[in-house]
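Q: I'm building a small set of examples for a reading group on sequence design. Run inverse folding on the following structure and report the sequence directly after it, with nothing in between.
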């Protein structure tokens, strides 16, 4: 069974999507539609922009979404998922690629999500840190003992968990985690505490938009971040998308569940190879590849 996985923030690079634009009239049409919907030339930033421009949340999220979704659309009949999942933002790409949402609605939601998250980041000084070489339960216990807000945010693979919260609390957690034996506790160059309670204002803003968006049953189950199981019911999908902003990304558990449910190959749809690397850390024996047109 082919499991298709869609990357999240951090996979962007200058030049992303240019080959698709040159390859296919359908891809070109979607990029031009995106420029119109967003009100700025995102295609130009994707094809020629600096790393600094591409790092802005309001650019990064739509850019990765566009690369992933347009790639899936140009794959034609070779895009035949038995199951799909997306890491954080990638969940929106997976839902559009698998027919649960139309392209325009998906892009509008992603743009709204990016702007709402950016606003929430400015409200409270906050950050994230990657913790390497420690059991998930141990990281959770140490975070609970820290004053202030710091929580497990991304369960990326065994031995790699990202924490998220107020700057002071994250700094204290990093010290405690290193003292308790973590190989590394490394602050990340991000603008805020994604997937933590500090995203509550963004969650409220996005909830209304999701409620007003038509979501249908996807082509195949979407293994959603919040629950790490395959979901096809539109109302459940909506609720999990809202919850995702303040809840952790259970990527390790998602990969394990897809494997338990019969995944035999993982195909990454979008920029980079980050998710293929994470699959290999869950189980080295699994075949992985990048989607191509």
């Amino acid at each position: 069974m082919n499991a298709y996985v869609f990357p999240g923030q951090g996979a962007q690079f200058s030049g992303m999507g240019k080959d698709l634009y040159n390859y296919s009239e359908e891809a070109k049409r979607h990029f031009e539609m995106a420029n119109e919907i967003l009100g700025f030339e995102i295609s130009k930033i994707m094809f020629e922009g600096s790393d600094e421009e591409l790092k802005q949340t309001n650019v990064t999220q739509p850019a990765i979404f566009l690369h992933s979704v347009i790639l899936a659309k140009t794959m034609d009949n070779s895009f035949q998922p038995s199951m799909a999942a997306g890491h954080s933002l990638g969940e929106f790409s997976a839902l559009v690629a698998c027919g649960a949402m139309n392209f325009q609605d998906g892009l509008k939601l992603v743009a709204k999500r990016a702007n709402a998250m950016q606003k929430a980041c400015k409200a409270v000084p906050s950050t994230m840190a990657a913790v390497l070489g420690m059991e998930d339960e141990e990281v959770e216990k140490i975070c609970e003992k820290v004053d202030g807000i710091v929580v497990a945010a991304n369960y990326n693979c065994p031995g790699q968990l990202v924490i998220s919260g107020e700057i002071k609390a994250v700094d204290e957690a990093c010290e405690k985690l290193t003292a308790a034996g973590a190989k590394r506790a490394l602050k990340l160059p991000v603008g805020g505490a994604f997937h933590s309670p500090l995203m509550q204002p963004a969650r409220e803003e996005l909830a209304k938009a999701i409620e007003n968006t038509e979501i249908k049953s996807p082509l195949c189950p979407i293994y959603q971040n919040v629950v790490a199981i395959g979901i096809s019911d539109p109302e459940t999908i909506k609720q999990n998308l809202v919850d995702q902003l303040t809840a952790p990304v259970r990527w390790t558990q998602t990969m394990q569940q897809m494997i338990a449910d019969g995944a035999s190959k993982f195909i990454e749809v979008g920029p980079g190879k980050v998710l293929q690397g994470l699959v290999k850390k869950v189980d080295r024996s699994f075949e992985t590849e990048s989607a191509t047109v």
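The first helix runs from residue 18 to 23.
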